[in-house]
Amino acid sequence: MNNQDKNYEQLLEGPLRGLEPLEQEIFCNRLALFGEDVERPLRLLYGDRPDFETWRDHFLMIIARNYAERPSELRMLDMDRLAEDDWFQLPDMIGYVCYTERFAGDLPGVGEKIDYLKELGVTYLHLMPLLKPRPGANDGGYAVMDYRQVRDDLGTMDDLAALAKSLRENDISLCIDLVCNHTAKEHAWARQAMAGDADFQDYYLMFKDRELPDRYEQTVREIFPEFKSGSFTYYEEIDRWVWTTFNEFQWDLNYANPAVFGEMLDIMLYLANQGVEVLRLDAVAFMWKRLGTDCENQPEAHYILQAFRALSRVAAPGLLLKAEAIVPPPQLVPYLGQGEATNKECEVAYHNVFMVMLWSSLAEGKVALMTHALQKMPPIPSRTSWLTYVRCHDDIGWAVTEEDAAAVGLNGFLHRSFLSDFYSGRFPGTHARGATFQFNPRTNDRRISGSCASLAGLEKALGGEEVDRQAVDLAIRRILLIHSMILAFGGIPLLYMGDEIGLLNDYSYEEDPNLAADNRWIHRPFMDWQKAGERRDETRISGRIFQGLQGLIRARKDIFAYHAQAGAYPVWTHNEHIFGLIRESPRGRVLILGNFSDQSQTAPAYRLLELGFGGQLLDLVDGRLIPGWQDLRFEPYDFYWLRVN
Ligand code: GLC
Fold first, then answer.
1. Which domain covers residue 231, as residue numbers?
2. Taking the chain, what is the end-to-end CA distance rounded to the nearest angstrom?
């Protein structure tokens, strides 16, 4: 009997015992199919250990057990997903991101808002962290003390499963966060570590003295320099320095310990079995540490994700993994898999570079940096997809590399400083109203908080003694322009709650002692259902934005060239204010154009012709016919989605 057969036997006699022969067969087939994908990253991670095989068998037991426990409804979903494996790449995918309590009170409340989501065209709902956090300050829920329980005030795990089911019945896939880089220091593992249990101390990264921490700190970046200095925290009770990349109460997990990998794998599949279809894997760039490096984006962080992916594919192939890696372009693309791991890492990842470039272009009124930076980004594997977005719950960090800036005649440092000044409201004449987040005096790095509408100029336009109508109009145009870009770029566009009705910065967080220190709460408002009630009234600001977005979403769903597998090529338009992007698939080509300046512009007809868009053109946004033989005129922040008619 070879090893493989022995494995199967153990599984069949163990966790798979109670299943029908066909169900057992399906599992074993998948294991054979993905066997190599499971083995390769696991060997790279843990292959040097003498007990490697014991651990590998332990992981197989975990997936077999979770497979056996998977509700039949979800097994059917797995079949559907395997049959239509580009389901998340289709142009009808539209994401929406919100905090359960701020959107609808609690989980059952979200169920009552499904009609609203459907009206907007949503097919994917990301509910912000909702697993049981530590009491008190918890970094917006990113400090979890129990991954198998829901936050008390939001409901129970059964409520979550029930919501996932009703969403699914309405063709909406549920996404939740899995905070896999760290736990709250109140998590049961951390408590045992704190009580002196050596096994659990090995779940985290703990040091007896400052020798190694000092050496690590020479090269790691400080993520929250305003919250605490350094990446380690000393605990007298255990006389240890603990690795805390983020806040003091968030302890980084030690993935060099295979027990940690196994625990997280088990949690992952447990959540998938509740009906969660997408897991947003938080802070994945930090999952592996290596002396002498910045301890981000290490090869092992990728192997961990590849192993999660391969193992979860066997137990729950319907599950998608989404990487949250907010890192510069060269480090970002590999999270979607490259080389041997092409199509074998995360299926989706945030396109933070595109997001940053949209805001950069609006501030500058020019698109050279965006065009260049996007042109340089390598294509992504065919079975993966970007998540495009204009805002999320986090700050905006100016991911502009020195090389990209220099290539278009800018100085990277000065440009990043300009953007921070512009969006914090300091730059003379700026339309933006944001706030500086995490000023780092050592590097002069300043990130930005602020809601989409406030950063786009709406807050300032409404804030004077009299409403500045022209400024309001420009702000709405900016909001629609950048959304038109994320809807056309390719991948799953994510709408961030409240942006669809132009919600402004919310300063009420300053009164809550658990939130006051973190100004990212400025752009995590409570849903304004009164404003949302005006969404069909185009004489209202909220109505104009909502209707505008809804129209774009409807148009997008019918454009096959917006499938994530279709190519996306940024092009020079011969006008430095007008961004151009070609989406290309065997089923058609679309030219997306957007004027990022507050002045009227034209795109020269000869350039449209060169790009293959001569003759009569059809604007897919509103069905208008456009003569491609004339220069194309743009009002401030106008955009087009053009097809040759
Ligand atoms: C991610 C989250 C962010 C959080 C951090 C630590 O970056 O998006 O909100 O502060 O991880 O968990």
1. 188-252
2. 65
